[in-house]
Amino acid sequence: MSRFAAVAFDLDDTLCRHDHDVTALYRRAFEEAGVEPFGEPDELWSLLDGPPDPDDRVGYLGAGFARLAARHDRKVDPVALAAAFEAVADESRVTFLPGATDALSAAAAAGPVGVLTNGPEDRQRAKVEALGLDDLVDVIVYAGDLPRRKPHADPFERLTAALSVEASETLYVGNSLAYDVAGAHNAGFRSAWLRADPEDVPGAYGPDHVVDSMAEIAGLLAEGRGADGPEPGSDAAATEPGEGR
Fold this sequence. Notes:
2 domains, elongated
């Protein structure tokens, strides 16, 4: 029997990832904006400041394009470039991360299942429909449409109310320490951090579990124990990877 009464997941880069030809998408954005291409997608990503802003994705991308243009000594309208990128992107082009469907099945066997995403419904709905999540989970909370997003506790509280479970009995799985793990902690959830690199460490955040793939979530739920990370707040939590981004 699982130690959790319910399980909830972040969406982007936890359950799914974009399935675009990123280089082609990048070039199409320049074509749409009528600008001669410069730079490469990876260079742009490295210049973005933290996670996307659900309230101003064009401004978020535009800041990255402005930095990129300065590096390449180009004078362009970075907001127009960002708007073109958003216009050609297809939010329905997503695919499950390896192990995600097994994690969802294991979560459903443990109890009700939720998804909590910081994006608004008008952006995230296409992903939900493409993945068929309406048939796989019980509740989806779009924090981008709420007064407060992760890491605030409000969207987590909305989730537990909809699932009719206690926060302390709920596991939240996400890839962001600053948003998913911190938010789960603030709301009284247990947390599982999906890290991108086995060399990454959680620092002071202290997630309850650390996993390197979604496939490990099914094992964690099925076994009831054995994939635990160090106790939250312990010295080990700041320096040691979990057993189980």
